[in-house]
Specification:
- With 226 residues, this protein is an all-alpha fold.
- The protein has one domain: MFS general substrate transporter like domains (Growth Hormone, Chain: A, Up-down Bundle), CATH 1.20.1250.20.
- The protein contains seven helices and no strands.
- It starts with a helix and ends in an 11-residue tail after the last helix.
Amino acid sequence: MFAGLALYRSRRHPAPAVDRDLWRDPVFARATVGALLFGAAMYAWLLTGPSYLIARWNYSVLEAGFGVTPGAVLATVGALVVGRRVPARRQWAAVTVGSLLFAANALLLWGWAGASASYAQVFLPAGLLGGLGIGVTLTALSTAASATLPAQRFAAGTGLLMTARQLGGALGVVATAALLAGAGAGAGGQAGEHWRGVFLLAALGALGAAAVGCSMRVRSGVRKES
């Protein structure tokens, strides 16, 4: 309801907080949808990953933090490579590849969530794929969307893209909480199904973002002058 009121108010305000005209650009509109979907997948995974290590393999909070650190490092590497090496007209491909990498990470964990396996065999390679996917996708979405904006609307467009990502993240966290609420997220067959449900949710969100990335190919991202 509040979102609807905000959009209605923005339509009539001379300096709207949500500039709906930005969505008339097909690349920016698709990037916003991609940010929403990937945000849901990413935040579901970020919430679940450390909790899974703690509940499934009895890691301490500190050990779980170290357990997800390699993925965070690779996310930085992916962001730097895409930001410096991939031109704006190719960012759609980076969105697609990054989202597919993240989906592969979630699907790997989905397949192994209910089984006992070592950190090095399953979670580490999955986390590296996921971290790389996060760095690549978020950077590519921002670059592709920004490249379509006139300079004077850059701040509004960036804010709208981040809002879409945060909204997706909120939805992903809510869905994660609902999936894990039943029998708790401890060890055991039934709980394993709850974990698998969250990882499948993350995979589906990332696959949706990959599809959006493919659709962004319709136009090359060239900054407008007005």
